[in-house]
Amino acid sequence: MYKTITMADDLLKKVIAHAKEYGFIFPSSEIYDGLGAVYDYGQNGVELKNNIKQYWWNAMVRLHENIVGIDSSIFMHPTIWKASGHVDAFNDPLIDNKDSKKRYRADVLIEEEREKHNQKILKEIEKGRKKFGDSFDEAKARETNPNILREQAKIDEITKRYDEALNANDLEAMRQLILDLGIVCPISGTANWSEVRQFNLMFETKLGSTAEGASSIYLRPETAQGIFVNYLNVQKTGRMKIPFGIAQIGKAFRNEIVARQFVFRMREFEQMEMQFFVRPGSEMEWFAKWKAERLAWHKALGLGDNNYRYHDHEKLAHYANAATDIEFNFPMGFKELEGIHSRTNFDLSQHQKFSGKKIQYFDPELNESYVPYVIETSIGLDRTVLAVLSNSYCEEQLDGEVREVLRIPAAIAPVKFAIMPLTKKDGLPEVAQKLMKQLEIECNCQYEEKDSIGKRYRRQDAIGTPYCITVDHQTLEDNTVTVRERDTMEQVRMSIDEVVATLPQKVSMASLLRKIQ
Ligand code: GAP
Hints:
Elements: E1 2-4, H1 11-21, E2 25-27, E3 39-41, H2 43-62, E4 67-69, H3 78-83, H4 86-89, E5 91-96, E6 103-105, H5 106-132, H6 138-144, H7 146-167, H8 171-180, E7 197-200, E8 204-207, E9 215-218, H9 224-228, H10 231-237, E10 244-253, E11 268-278, H11 283-300, E12 308-312, E13 322-330, E14 333-342, H12 346-355, E15 361-363, E16 368-370, E17 373-380, H13 381-392, E18 393-398, E19 401-406, E20 417-421, H14 428-440, E21 445-447, H15 453-463, E22 467-471, H16 473-478, E23 480-485, E24 491-495, H17 496-506, H18 509-516
Parallel strand pairs: 4-10, 20-21, 20-22
Antiparallel strand pairs: 1-18, 2-3, 5-6, 5-7, 8-9, 10-11, 11-17, 12-13, 13-14, 14-17, 15-16, 18-19, 22-23, 23-24
Helix pairs in contact: 2-13, 2-18, 5-7, 5-8, 7-8
Glycyl-adenosine-5'-phosphate is lined by residues 222, 224, 254, 256, 265-266, 269, 271, 273, 336-339, 376, 378-380, 382-383.
């Protein structure tokens, strides 16, 4: 009956427009022409976001007896950012195009150039797959196909020079690479580039009311440091035994130079971070465990296993001894969604040094004290929202019309049930309202009585409501309703008792958590 329209390259644009039209995400301060890379969540967006938070929080805190949560402040003592290294090194390399006066991240320009070659390889593989079907051998093609080999050689060359420049912190080498690759500004079309300079991403503000007494503080650029500086408080008051974790969800702020691609890169965003404190020497084992566990969390959502991949870091930050990203296949290609880092005892040691307080753990089994090592899992909430929206957005050809549907996993859908009386009379609204009362204590529901049933279905499809429940005249006779499922559009007749007893479970957070328990 219906056919899915193949999504074109403009998926991101469609998602942005859809998110605005259906109350998910609005540009911030829109009536004042907006504010760059800052967004507001609307009535459906906030429900989706809260559901994702709940999924993460329950998976991390409720399902792990040795993980507890906190909610630390956004303003923190400025020395924290000196200790963490953010004051000196939380920089991005920026480059200006002298003709368009536009500013870019030098590293992003290079990475995008490299990705173009990767895309060419993927196209070539797709071509092979279409031509040879099941007998196509991707690994062999990567080894023998001259077009793929040529593109791979270019990728390897870029990676080599890029890594050398990064490792040596050689900004001139980075600029030279941009020139050699012939990268031009998309606005002016020229390669008239400035020097590459480092730019600190932290927002600075003043604490205190008088000019003389005011001191500079920062809006936190990550939630992690709020966890580190509360390590002792939580460990002592919670009588936590290593290994244990502290989790937190909260806002972070970064003055991103190039803030594009919707909620992928924002200046104000939310992180869901967990620091797991372990015995020194055991960190690699825990790193591997968390790497696997976090990927399983993502996959359980049901956005497609092939849409995730690991990107192990070759170049490690000076404090890390292992790091990987979980990348998601966003409309603009595979990009970081979550970072998992083995941060050694760097952060706690630095805070010990800068605060002068002893930050250690007495291990009764070893009968010794040490500064714990840390495995960090850090996921962007807004990026997860984008992953869900872009993956769920679908256009289907349906009887000569286009049906826009968000196939959002049921457990995190903003509205779970739409309850609709067929008409506004004959007592149908009263029965529907009564059903609404029964279901709304279980989950978020919407009552809809305006417009034709077809129009109401379309509206609910567009916001991703898994089930529409229609009360009609037959309901008055036999207490049954029509339940219409979003993805298949199949309709079944069910008694109201059965609806109340069975449907909430299908859309519950518990159903999702069960997959990863
Ligand atoms: N504490 C470690 C940390 O902050 P990160 O890789 O800088 O690591 C972690 O950030 C996650 O936060 C990223 O994987 C990404 O999902 C999200 N994130 C980072 N910067 C962001 C931004 N400007 N806008 C939206 N999400 C961002």
